[in-house]
Amino acid sequence: MTIPSERLSGDLPVVDAESVVDQLEPDATVLVSGFGRVGYPKAIPLAIADADEEFGLTVVSGGSVGDEIDEAMVEAGAIDRRYPYQSAGAVRRSVNDETVAFADRHIAALADDVQYGGFVDPDVAIVEAIAVGEDWLIPSTSIGHTPAWVESVDQIIVEVNRAQPLELTAFHDNYRPGTPPNREPVPLSAPDGRIGGPRIEFDSEALTAVVETETPDSPYEFRDPTDVDLEIASNLQSFLVEEVRESSLYDDSVRVQFGVGSLGNALMGALADADFGDRDLVYFGEVIQDGLLDLLDENQLHAASATSFALSSDGQERLFENASRYAEDVVLRPADLSNSPTLVDRFGVIAVNSALEVDLYGHVNSTHVDGSRMLNGIGGSGDFTRNSPLSVITLPSTAVDGDISRIVPMAPHVDHTEHDVDVIVTERGVADLRGTSPRERARAILESCAHPDFEPALESSLERADANGGHEPHDLETAFSWQE
User: Is 286 in the active site?
Assistant: First the structure.
């Protein structure tokens, strides 16, 4: 693969960020690149936040972005609506006090939602790149939905970030599915295959501005694994080793996905010691985290496919210094492929995601604290949980220093139903829910996953619910009292 020698190629409309702000309509719908808090525009959002003009923008990203958008622009009052995932304090507070309107969506379907589904009517795409020409760009540390964004608008603005090495070109595999109903099957036969190229192409007339920046992505901050994290990881490892040994689905290789975050990063570490025999370990998911780089460095990971890097400062340094070596085993592709239900099913990916809480029947709340306050969003967890042949939810059994049980009688908000969840893992143990009736599920989760301090209350709740009868019995008064 040829690495470009120049950041800017051809006759380009190079301007400063403040000039771009003058081009924007105050109520524009803006599609921004970014996924996992990397690969998003930085200079233009700060210029918007500092502008004298009052903005009321609708901002759509492929995944989480950095503080330049979700802190500075929000605090400046420049965002009226925000879709579909966020992870910063300022925007979260604004979403929960209704200062910013917010709607959550599954990542896999977002490109189609924007292009064909009437989700929003986009005006402009502002995307980050490491290089740009008159009718093409090469993304930086994430691809996300950038290919769909540039197809969806008549106005494209590119931030060329000189802080991102041109060697990132080697990771990118951009492929666009066709338009329904004539959409062809995605011609990807292996998780590490390549079916596209590094460039995202567009109509040259759509490129209205190019802004040069040198602002690096903010590194992801992974906390050190707690004892509880390590116990969850140990339980997951034991379960997966036995599952791989017994199921013919994993005769040749083990394909896994992990949710982004400190727990997910810790769980990846558990795979380093897992005895999968001579089977290759393959990652097919959304983000590349430090734990995956560790596995690659130790020659314990055959390949990794994602749409974004989400790395600590140490991880970023490792990646940038050794980009050519990592690119031999790592590929970044658009989010509608990294999260594609078809590909998750085709490759038989084991989905491992975390949650806020799980109820006794296996319903999972991933997004709303107390059923009401939005945390971040569903992200891609639904794409994998629903379409995986083995979906695993991992979480500690308690929160707030043990004062709150994360195993509850009835989830106050449900993101993943009992029909899509196969296994629950906490530091207490593993509940395999496959083939169980509701009462059997409740018993398995209570006995294997709940914290002993809360077992008596959960047991009492089950007894009162059981007295009411029915297929999946509830005692609503007891269930709702847990939220108090």
Answer: yes
